[in-house]
Amino acid sequence: MALFKGGGLGAGQRLSATGFLALGVLTFWVYSVLRFAAAWRAHCARRWREIEGRDDLKGADPQRMAALHARGFSPGRAAPGFAAGLFALSAALVAGWFVRWILLGEEFGYGAIVGAVGASSALFYAALLVAMLWALGAVRRHETSELLVREVGAGALLARRAELGDDIARRWERWTNHVVLFLVCAAPMVFSPTLGAHLFLTGVVWGHVLVLPALCFALAAVLHVWGTVLLVGLYNGHIEYESLHGAREALHPAADRLLPSVAEGAQDAAPERELAAIMLTDMQGYSKAMERDEARAYAKLVEHNRIMRGAIAAHRGREIKTIGDAFLVIFRSALDAVDCGLAAQRAFADYNLGKDEADRILVRIGIHLGDVLVTGNDVFGDGVNVAARIEPHAEPGGICISEPVFEMVRKKIQLEVTRLEGIRLKNIALAPELYRIRLST
To answer: Which of 13, 64, 331, 385 could be joined to 336 by an S-S link, Cβ 3.0–4.6 Å?
Structure first.
């Protein structure tokens, strides 16, 4: 579910790889690690200021707030500073050896040359190891802490860890694999000058005398570009994740995109108050599918929209807004809304028959009955906010309804439902009981 990039989550400035590529190579990665660390600290500080201002965290226990801050919003300076120091020491060894050998004309034996090059390579690789593992860990801790705050609000102060969903777990598995692969491949690249010095000093020549130096420079270029793209990608990937999943924390992400503010609605003439059944839908995994294969994801979206609009039209629904994979629809009756949801889920189930998992369309549907303000082309009000909070509690391919909806339809349509116990709807003071409709298989 792609979100607009307004203030708050996802609003951070992306890093450009240009400066890292140019200045990183000139400073032996000192610039790269310090620039990343400074940008990351600024991002964490900005997000912490926003979190401190949340209503549900105002007046919280200062010690627990400090623990949350230390856990995911205070990346520290020691690790990147240490890595930058190692990078600088590696550069100093190379520069000192170059000045003495090339400019001052000092003679060095095999042991001195290979030892100097090897020591510089070892320092550079140690710095690379510290920098990449620190960056990976810092971004992950921050992202999981944000997840806790977003999902459980003030409960994040008590939680020791976040239970990661499948999407974010797979996301971090991929990032970890990328970093590990890079660090494994970086070792022979970093130490290639040491091997090159050994071969050169022992009289081994591969074709032309410049072949070995050219090979070392080529490996260094690959290492630099690959590492830079990975480091910058960690930062930008998190900003993109925020923009895709983070919305205004007072509302469900789909509601943040779909629902107008009262100020926006006030611009329309004479809004009318109605009792309506509100349906909000969300297609599972759409944003990740777009990241992997835009054309394939778009084809799924077209089918998703076709099926949804067919069900909505057949049950007298009014499509209010559709952005990406999210639908906001209102109905005159709760029965029409539930029948529409059931028809849509049956149609999606038929569509999914025989398809690979990646090609299946799984949709969550939330339905609530409540007061709304309806204008010419918009709808807003507390009833819509409640529906936005209900939808995430539906299972993929399922429907979740509020108690008012259940009471309206229980005697008119045969349903098997499961009552959800202990569910709290964030920022909803008088939250209704929730029921999941058990769909026949």
So the answer is: 331
| 195 is a domain residue | yes
- Indicate if 229 and 277 belong to the same structural domain: no
Could you report the per-residue pLDDT of 369-408, keeping only the tens digit for each?
988 888 777 887 888 888 888 899 999 999 999 999 999 9
pTM score, two decimals? 0.56
Q: For the CA atoms of the chain, what is the radius of gyration?
A: 28
- Say if residue 373 is in the same domain as residue 263: yes
pLDDT of residue 255: 44
- Domain assignment present for residue 349? The answer is yes
Pairing of the two strands 399-402 and 363-374: parallel
Asked which of 183, 213, 245 is the last residue of a domain, the reply is 245
